[in-house]
Each structure stands twice: as C-alpha cells, then as structure tokens.
Amino acid sequence: xNNFIKTTTKTTKYIEFISDNFYIAHRYNKFSAKDVLSKHIxxxxxxxxxxxxxxxxxxxxxxxxxxxxxxxxxxxxxYHYFETTNDAxxxxxxxxxxNPEFNKLLKITNPTKINVSKNEIIKSIFxxxxxxxxxSSDAKWQNDSETIVNLLISELLINIKNNDTHxxxxxxxxxxxxNKIIQYINDNIEKVNTYxxxxxxxxxxxxxxxxxxxxxxxxTPKKYIELKKITKAEILLKEGLKPNDVAEKLGYNNYVxxxxxxxxxxxxxxTKRNFK
Length: 276
Known about the structure:
alpha+beta; about 40% helix; globular; Jelly Rolls; 8-stranded antiparallel β-sheet; 9 helices; Arc Repressor Mutant, subunit A
C-alpha cells in the first residue's frame, strides 16, 4: 500500500503519506477557540514535531506543556491527545512507525520530549519528509520516494537515539487512585472487560469512576477500556493470532461483539486488514 493525500479546507491544510511501514502527516490548523485534537491510542510509536504553536500534551493522567520545535515521542498502548492553549495558527508533523524494525533503532520505552530548535539535522529531516511525500504523488517517483522516506526515518531515529537532550516524561502522581486504576487496566487488559470490573476491584462507585476519568482524562471509563482493548487486539493480530482467538483472549463475550467494535474503530474487518 502506498497512498498520498493532500487536503485543504477553511481551517485545515494537510498532506498525508501512507505506506505499510509508516504514516506521515503535516498539518496546519487555524483555530478561533481552544481545541482538543483527537484522543487516541496507537499500536505503534508516534512522533510529533510541534512546528508552530503551543500545545498541552496529555498522556494518561499527565499534562506536559509543548512549544515550537518540541519533539514528542509516545510509545504504543498509551492514551494521549494534544490540546491547543490559545487562539493561534498551529503546525505539526505526525509520524507513526509501523515497521517493527524502526522500534529497534529508537530504543525508547517511556514518553519523551526533546527540543530540537538547535538541531538542524532533525529539523531538515522533516522538511525532506515533506518533499518526498509530495513526490510520491508522481508515478515516476512513487517507489523511489518511499525508499528515501524509509531511509530518512531511520536517519531521524538514529539522531533521536543519540541526542543528549532527552526528557523522559514522568507520570503525574497527584491523583494516586486514578494512577492505580490506569495501571490496573494496563496490566490486566486481557481480563478487564467493563468498567464494572474496575469498580469491583477498587471498591468504588460507578459515578466516582466516571468522574475520575471525565475530569482528568476527558474520556469515559467505558471508552478508555474499549480503546485499550481494541488497540491490544490490533497488536495480537499483527503477531499472527486469528481473529477468533484474539476475541477470546481479550475476553469479549463473543466474536460478533469483537467484530462490531473492531469495524467501528478501524473501518475494516479483522480478516481484511493488511498486517504485512
């Protein structure tokens, strides 16, 4: 699969380059008010470069301020989103590492922030990613542009690995009960099926759990658990497990329930997804 998309609207301009090994996007947004950018979980590493603007980066129960030329690295299975902090123009690059070989180069296990304002090499790589993403729309360049982009991603990851300004982001410990709940869900995602399981484990009411999640994570506990489970399902499918076995392993009541949730999230059936 190799796909290039260029879109312009009144509020957003972006390009996307998608292949089996990576997803690249360069987005420009204009906001008239504070905005929250999609709450999500990936089964891959995500790298975001803030090219312009100020953001609050939310991951699980922690909030980090991000400014121009901050590079944010989010490991797989981590709930996160970006929130804009003022009325301004925003620009950011988004890179998803689909190829497991990329992870071997990165060697990062925790959320990490790096300011690359003085790193001309890393900044230039994103500029070149733009250039070759655009080139991929030309039939003559399509295969060559993907080859070059794979090399550029490897170059980027090696430079990140050897950068000495890593700031590993530590979890906010101010809400200890929520942190314990998040850790419990992460450690037991294969057997935690509903938010009722969490309430029973921690002897708390459904209303209290709902309040904890919506106030701190801007997400319901039901949706949070669903996102975690379906992302774990994607990882298991990539590892070669059959869809029926994945549904059983993750504790879905039946395959039909798993199938419906999977299609809702990925707009494709678990048997038709390309796990190359």
